[in-house]
Amino acid sequence: MNLSESRPIEILLVEDSPSDAALTIEALKEGKVANRLNHVEDGVEAMSFLRRQGKYAKATRPDLIMLDLNLPKKDGREVLAELKNDPDLKLIPIIVLTTSRSDNDILQSYQLNANCYITKPVDFPHFIEVVKSIEQFWLTVVTLPRRI
Description:
Blueprint: E1 9-14, H1 18-29, E2 35-40, H2 43-50, E3 64-67, H3 76-84, E4 94-98, H4 103-111, E5 116-119, H5 124-141
Parallel strand pairs: 1-2, 1-3, 3-4, 4-5
Helix pairs in contact: 1-5, 2-3
């Protein structure tokens, strides 16, 4: 998928920090690529959304997932493992966007087939810059698989 397509890119943001979610949403609103962003706050809710269960029965399958690792109820590592082991969901690209700089978390995320690992900057201007660079690369350069 690229800019020549007319429909917006569907993004699922899985983030429990209200301030990080707000910054990400704001940065993507300012972007050049039409996108629709859905936001969930924990791993259980993310899996319900992706499996279209309960209140998410009519949810649109995302083209891209932005996943925090340190989530309540079901952490991001568990979500990543479930997604990449699910034949219906495994092709959705997953960007791990987290505060963790742990070598173990980085290695484990890639072993679980994350498409990339980005450590959240602590200062707001740099955080916005990082989100915009994610948009620039993932929504304008990369060809994403077609949504099912």
